[in-house]
Design goal:
The complex is a heterodimer. Chain A is 47% helix and 15% strand. By secondary structure, chain A is an alpha+beta fold. The longest helix of chain B has 39 residues. Classes of the chains: A alpha+beta, B alpha+beta. The complex binds flavin-adenine dinucleotide (FAD).
Chain lengths: 388, 356
C-alpha cells in the first residue's frame, strides 16, 4: 500500500499536458456521445496518440507488447488520466475485454493477428452477446454458425451492441451445433463487421444519441480459424471474458466517477444546492460511498492479482458491480436534484451539461453487464451458496 | 374526511380517460412533440370540444366552473396520457388566478371565454420556475415577478409581439421560454402585499396540478411495465413470474396507493381554503413525486435495455415525470415547507390538530 509512484505520476501528467491539446482540446473531459464536442473519429485519433505514447496495454505482459506494469501503477495511470481530463476510452472493449481473453484462449496466430491492432488503436471491437431473446438469459443465444469450407458462415441477430457502428470487428457468441441447448454447442467467433453479410442499425437511446445498435448477420463470413477456444466451448470463453469485464477494466470507470463527483460539488456550490442541509447530507453520503467503492476496488484487484494474475475470482467482484451501479444510479438522481428545475434545460454550463448526461446515462447502469436482479441472484447462489 | 367522489366526478374522469385513450395515443404525441412548436391545433381543438379547457371557467364566461377536487381527477388523467400541453396551467391555474384578482374584470371578460372555447392560451411566469411553459403559444402571460423594490408585482403581458426564446427541455413534449428582463410599466396589473398572497395561492394550485399529473404518470408507467413483464420471456418464462420483478412493481403500486389519498386530501384542503393547505399540498407533491420516480426507476429496470431506448414509450412518461417533479417547487422546497410548518414555534400538533 505504500509504494511511491510520484515520478510515474509526474510522467503521466506531463505527457497528458503535452498531448491532450490542439485538435484534442474539444474532447477533454468528454465521456462519450452526448458531451458537446465529442467525436468518435477524433476519439480514435486520440487512442492512437495514447498508443504511440505507450499508454495502451500497460498491464499486458511484455511478450504481447505490453509494459507489464503492476496493478498499483495501472491505478496511478487511470487516476492521472482522468485528472488531466482524458476522454472516455473508445478502445476499452478491445483492450480490456477481448485482449485478455485472446491471451488466455487464443492461438498464437490469433494473438499475433489481433493484439497489435488493439495496442495501436487502429482496430476497434464490439461485444456481440445479447440478442432479442437472449438478454439476462444469455444461454438462449440463437445466432447460428456453420463451417463451410474454410469459412464460418453466420446467420442471426445481435442487439444492444455498443459502438458496433464505429467498430471493425465483433466477437460473437453463436450456436455451432444445430439442435444444441443452452450452454452447450456454442462458439465464440471473431467476425469482421465491414462486410456485405453484416447490417448495422443504430438504436436511439433515451439520451437522444445512438451508442448501441442492432447487428444483423445474413450469411456473414469469417475465416474458419477465427474461433476463440474450441467450437462447442464458447460458453466457457464468454464467461471468462465477463470476468475481465469485472476486473481491471473498472479502474478507468472508477476514476471517471471521481470526476463526476467533483463536477456535482462544483455545481451545487454555485447554484446554492450546497446550502440545503438535506442535499449536503446526500452529497456527503455519496462521496463517502464513492470512497468506499474505490478502496474496495483496489483491495479486490490486489487480492486477484496476488491469487491469479488478474483474473477476478472473488465474490467481491460480483458485489462490486451491484454496488457501483446502484451508487451511480442514485448519484444520477442526486445530480438531477442538484440541478433542480434547471435539470430539464439544456444550458451552456459544461458542468451542468455533464451532470444532465450522467443523470440520463446512469439509468442504464443497473441493466448492462448483468442486471441488478441477476447480480443479486449470483451473489446469493455463488457467493452464499444458496439453493438455486 | 370523506374520500368518495360523486358520481358526476367519476363520470367526468372516465369520459376524459376514454376520450384521451382514443384521441391522444402515444404515437400521435410523439409525432406532435417532434414538430417545431410541439403542439397540435387539431388535438387542442378536440380537447376544447370536450369541455376540458373550460372546466374552471365560470358559467357566465362559457365554462362549467368546477373546483380543485374535480380538477385533481382530471389532472391524473392528463398525466396518465402525458398530454403535451400546459393545459393545466392555462385552464386551471391561470384561470383561477384571474378569477381571484378583483382588478382583472376586463381581462376576464376578454380572455376567459376564449380559454373555454380553446382559442386562447394563458401562461404563467412565477418565481418558483426559471422558465415559462408554453410561452410561445401564450396569448396572455400572467407574470408574477419582483419589482424594483423587491416586492412582487403582477403583470398581464400580451403575447402579441412579445419576444420569447423557446428552449426544448429533456422532455421532448415541453417547450420553455424566458421572458424579457424588463416588462413595460403599462403591463403592471397589481402591486402591494396582495400579490404575495396571489403568488402563494398560484404556487399551491399549480403544485397540486403537478401532483395529480405525477400520480397519473406513475400509474401509466406501472401499467406499461405490468404489461411488458407479462409478455417478455427469459429463461423460458415471463419475467413477471420472477419474484424480484414482481416485488419491484408491487413497490410501485404501494407508493401510488399512498400518494392518492394524500393528493385527494390536499385537493379538499385547497378547495375549502383550509389553513393547512400549503403544507398538505407540499406533502402531496412529495408523495406523488416519490411515486413517479419509483415508477420510473423500477419501470426501466424491469424493461431491461428496452426501457433505455427512445422507441419504447416508457421514456416519454419517465421524462415527463422527472421534469414535472422539478416544476413549481422542487423537492427541497416542498420538504422545507413541510419541515418549517411542523417545527415552527407554536405549530399545531397532536391529535387535536391533526385528526380533523
Ligand atoms: C447501455 C447498454 C449497453 C449495452 N451494450 C451491450 C453490448 O455492447 N453488447 C451486448 O451483448 N449487450 C449489451 N447490452 C445488453 C445488456 O447486456 C442487456 O440489456 C442485459 O443483459 C439485460 O438483458 P435485457 O435487456 O434483455 O433484459 P431482460 O433480460 O429482458 O430483463 C428484464 C428484467 O427482468 C429481470 N430478470 C430477467 N431474468 C430474471 C431472473 N431469472 N430473475 C429475476 N429477474 C430477472 C431483469 O433483471 C430485468 O429487470 C447493453 C445494454 C445497455 C442498456
Amino acid at each position: 500500500m505504500t509504494a511511491d509512484y510520484e515520478a510515474f505520476r509526474a510522467e503521466i501528467a506531463a505527457w497528458m499536458q503535452q498531448h491532450l491539446r490542439g485538435e484534442f482540446e474539444s474532447i477533454r473531459n468528454c465521456s462519450g456521445l452526448g458531451d458537446a464536442g465529442y467525436d468518435p473519429k477524433l476519439a480514435k485519433r486520440w487512442e492512437q496518440a495514447l498508443a504511440r505514447g505507450g499508454w495502451v496495454g500497460i498491464g499486458w505482459p511484455k511478450e504481447h507488447g505490453g509494459r507489464a506494469l503492476p496493478l498499483a501503477q495501472q491505478v496511478v495511470f487511470h487516476e492521472e488520466y482522468v485528472r488531466a481530463g482524458g476522454p472516455g476510452r473508445l478502445g476499452h472493449i478491445g483492450e480490456t475485454l477481448l485482449a485478455p481473453t485472446l491471451m488466455a484462449f487464443g492461438t498464437r496466430e490469433q494473438q499475433q493477428r489481433f493484439l497489435p491492432g488493439i495496442l495501436a488503436g487502429t482496430e476497434y471491437w464490439a461485444q456481440g452477446y445479447s440478442e432479442p431473446n437472449a438478454g439476462s438469459d444469455l444461454a438462449n443465444v440463437q445466432t447460428r454458425a456453420r463451417l463451410e469450407g474454410d469459412s464460418w458462415v453466420i446467420d442471426g441477430q445481435k442487439t444492444w451492441t455498443s459502438w458496433a457502428h464505429e467498430s471493425d470487428w465483433i466477437f460473437v457468441v453463436a450456436r455451432c451445433e444445430p439442435g444444441s441447448q443452452r450452454h452447450k454447442g456454442l462458439v465464440m467467433l471473431l467476425v469482421p463487421l465491414r462486410q456485405a453479410g453484416v447490417a448495422i442499425r443504430p438504436i436511439r437511446q433515451i439520451t437522444g444519441d445512438s451508442e448501441f445498435n442492432e447487428v444483423f448477420f445474413d450469411g456473414a463470413r469469417t475465416a474458419g480459424s477465427l474461433h476463440l477456444g474450441a467450437p462447442g466451448e464458447g460458453w466457457k470463453v464468454a464467461m471468462a471474458l465477463l470476468g475481465f469485464e469485472r476486473g481491471v477494466s473498472t479502474l478507468g470507470q472508477q476514476a471517471g466517477f471521481e470526476r463526476e463527483m467533483a463536477c456535482l460539488i462544483d455545481v451545487a456550490r454555485r447554484n446554492g444546492a450546497a446550502r440545503d442541509p438535506d442535499m449536503r447530507q446526500r452529497i456527503a453520503q455519496a462521496a463517502a460511498t464513492l470512497d468506499a467503492l474505490r478502496c474496495n476496488a483496489l483491495r479486490v484487484l490486489a487480492q486477484d492479482e496476488a491469487a491469479s494474475g488478474g483474473v477476478p475470482v472473488s465474490r467481491e467482484a460480483y458485489i462490486a458491480k451491484y454496488v457501483w451501479s446502484n451508487w451511480r444510479r442514485d448519484f444520477g438522481r442526486l445530480a438531477a436534484d442538484v440541478l433542480g428545475a434547471a435539470a430539464c434545460l439544456p444550458d451552456d454550463d459544461p458542468m451542468a451539461q455533464k451532470l444532465r448526461q450522467v443523470w440520463l446515462f446512469s439509468r442504464s447502469d443497473t441493466i448492462y453487464a448483468g442486471t441488478n436482479e441477476i447480480q443479486l441472484n449470483l451473489i446469493a447462489e455463488r457467493a452464499l451458496g444458496m439453493p438455486r | 374526511m370523506d374520500f368518495t367522489f360523486t358520481e358526476e366526478q367519476v363520470a367526468l374522469r372516465d369520459s376524459i380517460n376514454r376520450f384521451l385513450m382514443k384521441e391522444a395515443a402515444p404515437e400521435l404525441l410523439r409525432e406532435i412533440s417532434e414538430t417545431s412548436g410541439g403542439r397540435s391545433r387539431e388535438l387542442h381543438a378536440k380537447i376544447a370540444a370536450q369541455g376540458i379547457t373550460g372546466l374552471s371557467v365560470p358559467e357566465a364566461h362559457g365554462g362549467v366552473g368546477l373546483g380543485d377536487i374535480d380538477w385533481t381527477l382530471v389532472t391524473e388523467e392528463l398525466g396518465y396520457h402525458a398530454i403535451p400541453d400546459s393545459l393545466v396551467e392555462s385552464s386551471y391555474v391561470a384561470t383561477a388566478l384571474l378569477g381571484s384578482v378583483p382588478e382583472a374584470g376586463a381581462l376576464r371578460e376578454q380572455w376567459l371565454p376564449r380559454v373555454a372555447d380553446g382559442t386562447a392560451h394563458i401562461s404563467i411566469e412565477h418565481p418558483a420556475n426559471p422558465c415559462v411553459a408554453d410561452a410561445h403559444l401564450a396569448d396572455l402571460i400572467l407574470a408574477i415577478r419582483a419589482g424594483k423594490d423587491g416586492a412582487l408585482e403582477l403583470h398581464a403581458v400580451s403575447g402579441t409581439g412579445l419576444q420569447r426564446s423557446t428552449q426544448v427541455s429533456i422532455d421532448a413534449s415541453r417547450r420553455l421560454a424566458m421572458l424579457p428582463q424588463k416588462l413595460a410599466a403599462s403591463t403592471r396589473l397589481l402591486t402591494g402585499a396582495g400579490v404575495q398572497t396571489l403568488a402563494d395561492a398560484t404556487l399551491d394550485r399549480a403544485a397540486l396540478g403537478v401532483a395529480g399529473q405525477l400520480v397519473g404518470l406513475a400509474q401509466r408507467m406501472l401499467d406499461v411495465s405490468v404489461d411488458y413483464v407479462a409478455q417478455r420471456k427469459q429463461f423460458g418464462k415471463p419475467i413477471g413470474s420472477f419474484q424480484a420483478v414482481k416485488h419491484h412493481l408491487a413497490d410501485v403500486v404501494t407508493k401510488i396507493e399512498f400518494a392518492r389519498p394524500v393528493l385527494y386530501r390536499a385537493a379538499l384542503a385547497l378547495q375549502r381554503g383550509d389553513r393547512h393547505r400549503a403544507v398538505l399540498i407540499s406533502h402531496a407533491k412529495l408523495a406523488a413525486g416519490d411515486a413517479a420516480w419509483t415508477a420510473a426507476r423500477k419501470g426501466i429496470q424491469v424493461h431491461g435495455a428496452c426501457g433505455y431506448t427512445w422507441e419504447v414509450d416508457l421514456q416519454m412518461y419517465m421524462k415527463r415525470a422527472w421534469v414535472l417533479d422539478a416544476a413549481w417547487g422542487d423537492r427541497g422546497f416542498h420538504k422545507a415547507r413541510l419541515g418549517h410548518e411542523l417545527l415552527r414555534d407554536g405549530a399545531p400538533l397532536g391529535p387535536a390538530a391533526t385528526l380533523q
